[in-house]
Design brief:
Keywords: Membrane, Transmembrane, Transmembrane helix. The structure is a single chain. By secondary structure, this protein is of the alpha/beta class. The protein is built from twelve helices and 18 strands. It folds into three domains: 45 residues; 270 residues, Alkaline Phosphatase, subunit A, CATH 3.40.720; 107 residues, Gyrase A, domain 2 (2-Layer Sandwich). The strands form five sheets. Strands 6-5-7-1-8-17-2-18 form an eight-stranded mixed β-sheet, sandwiched between helices. A four-stranded antiparallel β-sheet has the order 11-12-14-13. Strands 3-4 form a two-stranded antiparallel sheet. Strand 11 and strand 12 form a beta hairpin. Helix 7 packs parallel to helix 9.
Length: 479
Amino acid sequence: MGGEDQPNSTTSLLSRPYYSGSSSTPPPEKTTTTVPFISLLLTTCLALSVTVAIAILLFSSSLHHSQVNLQISEAIAKFSRPLPKLKHPVVILISSDGFRFGYQFKTDTPNIDNLIKNGTEAEEGLIPVFPSATFPNHYSIVTGLHPAYHGIINNRFFDPKLNETFTRPTGSNVSKWWFGEPLWETVVNHGFNASTYFWPGSMASKGKWTCQEYFCKQFNESVPFEERVDGVLNYFDMPSSEIPVLMTLYFQDPDAQGHEVGPDDPDITEAVGRIDSMIGRLIQGLKKRGIFEDVHIVLVGDHGMVGTCDKKLIFLDDLAPWIKISSSWVEADKAQLGIRPPANYSLVDVVANMTKGLKKVNNGKHLKVYLKEKLPKRLHYAASDRISPIIGLVDEGFTVTQSRPGGEKYCGGAHGYDNNYFSMRSIFIGHGPRFAKGKKVASFKNVEIYNIVTSILDIKGAPNNGTRGFPNKILVPSR
């Protein structure tokens, strides 16, 4: 409406004033004094018009440049930035054993929160492989293989071909137990250095990886956490061409506390706070060297934890009226049952008789036994002679054991259950040039981590069970 009014006003001001007198008679004085006034108004309006036009032009230009700058910023954010102080991308892979998803909400964790805020997080946790135990999952993380394929099918197991039993720690440095190609072997095969500060499997020599003392620390749980962090930081003081491009770091907390007191005890809160302080120590050490934003930090856990108590026990001896299960048959118990009967027993009959008995005994409904070939396919837990021929899946929070214990009643925590249970999930947090800031991704299985790390390092990985193209969902493209 205002755009139409202005032309009418201007036309009125510029019109010749009406005068009815003789043409020879001078116009009245009023007409003479109106002309300068009209000129002044005209000049003022023109000036205002020019000013408004310039303002609109400048605003439009500013808006255009802002939009262009925003588009440029968004484009830059889609790609990782260059590394000014490192010759090659570096990944620090950190495991906090038994760090159940949700522990980070139990207490203030400013350093972990910093990584999450400025990095990428699996929003509802990292899914372990089955069984959700320490050794199988740590080795799945670094090989991208399910336990049936990397060989470490549990924390303790029997190999019928070798006629030997794998135990910790004696089997940790013997390569015959460890299949697949772990990340440290992949890295050295490409001509780079790798270092491991306590990681299951790292002490076994494989290929070009020989576990040299300087780059490969023998597990010793008494080594202070601070010393472990400082040991990793010291590698960055090497000549740039010698800095390991993969560094692993392991903490046994809060798993140790979880087994003793369960997941909801104040001891867990204290342990989580301690882990956070170690992350802070690492961050400060990297900042001191001016490389915090250049290094990729991947913080994970191997499994979660659930509370257990003596009222949730299942006893194999209770099955004696249907079938006597000798303790010599039992290769795994607690959160998962593994049974290897003598060769003269029918496996089908053993499963059938156990199933009958479990319907009758106390808490028996919370244990379901299978021939391993009949397990749910999603568990990927059949394709190895090391896996017991009969596997029992135990309901969350229940435990299976041979006989009733004497003495004190016990409550604590356990893991090893079906990896579908949310309580078995851990954490995945990535920070660094290839991780977008503040990004949340859906939960995924830890066998995907191998390909994520090799993608960051820009090296070709070994065949594995990870999903082709999965790193593209997690990482921003490299330049």
